[in-house]
Amino acid sequence: MKRRNFLKSTAAGAASLWLGTSAKASSFFKPSAAGKMVVISSSNGLRATGRAMELMQQGHDALDSVIAGVNIVESDPNDMTVGYGGLPNEDGVVQLDSCCMHGPTHNAGAVGALEGIKNPSLVARLVMERTDHVLLVGQGALRFARAHGFKEENLLTDKARRAWLHWKEKRKDNDWFPPEDADRDKNGKAALDIPFTYGTITCLGLDGNGDISGVTTTSGLSYKIPGRVGDSPIIGAGLYVDNEVGACGSTGRGEENLKNLTCHLIVEFMRQGMSPQKACMAGLKRVVEKAKYMPRLMKDNGRPAFNIRYYAINKAGEFGGVSIYGPAEYALHDGKENKMRKAEYLYEWKK
Ligand code: ASP
């Protein structure tokens, strides 16, 4: 597909005006049979890995491809952890975080607490390509998106609003309460009883040129304090790419990644010679060790009271995925097959 047509077909429509370095890379690139391609994503990312690989196989670079992949999930109202349809903050407002990192230029862009824009990953990319900065937040990020022609939309779907309202009404520390005939599902549980929840999509790609890029995008922790920014837009925390080594992305409790810069750590472990799988597990264990300093992060059985997951690829096309709690899965396209793979985990859920 010609680049011009590809841009038209992406979710951003008129806002897809990137002309940066990766555009140059992809315009001249012809896929080579020698170059092993791989795309990895979180468990909600099978459509993203499929789309990203399709684009890489057509000759697009990894950044174009992984962003187009996650745009599918950002725009999907049924994924309540990312973009449009994501669960809102405690005021009922959807605030989105995203970052991307481009291996060949070692450049990055990010947005935090962005409201009203369905595809924050596209805005993050423009921060990288059209400013001298890496991170824009809140109103400044929104004004920047507007300047680039992004359309503002109400991102709070009715389903997400009802989940938020139910969460608010069942809390004991305020004056809101649910109706007596609150909708119940067939198990007798309130139909939209979605508790505090994490969820994000991260997607990393190694293209046929041997270049690596990644993106992470999220609505973050549901019902969060307005203005709370997690790890997803922080380079080194929720995403890190080193074109000479590999890339790592994360989903789960962002606060632990902010304190450990775990994605950067995992890429450094790979630089020291660990496989992506071993590096992810070493990073995960570091997070668990450090969490023990703070008793409220641990359960009585000595296990973490939170979950976190890492996904990584290296320059050779090897990959890995881990989770504190399992069974857990991740999406992977190895150039031949696009399917869910089992992630290694430390503990079983509910034990
Ligand atoms: N890491 C995200 C955050 O803390 C949420 C998640 O991945 O579940 O905002």
Automatic annotation (TrEMBL):
Q: Is Signal one of the keywords UniProt gives this record?
A: yes
Q: Which GO terms describe its molecular function?
A: hydrolase activity, acting on carbon-nitrogen (but not peptide) bonds, in linear amides
Q: Site positions for Cleavage, renumbered to this chain?
A: G199, T200
Q: Which domain of life is it from?
A: Bacteria
Signal peptide start-end: 1-25
Q: Which UniProt keywords apply?
A: Signal
According to its UniProt record, which residues of this chain constitute the active site? T200
Any one Pfam family here would be Asparaginase_2
Query: Which Gene3D superfamilies does the record match to this protein?
Result: (Glycosyl)asparaginase
Provide the residue positions that the database annotates as binding substrate. Answer: R228, V229, G230, D231, T251, G252, R253, G254
* One Gene Ontology CC term in the entry: cytoplasm
- Record's PANTHER family? L-ASPARAGINASE, N(4)-(BETA-N-ACETYLGLUCOSAMINYL)-L-ASPARAGINASE
Q: What is this protein called?
A: Asparaginase
Q: Which organism is it from?
A: Caldithrix abyssi
**What does the organism's lineage look like at the top?**
Bacteria, Pseudomonadati, Calditrichota, Calditrichia, Calditrichales
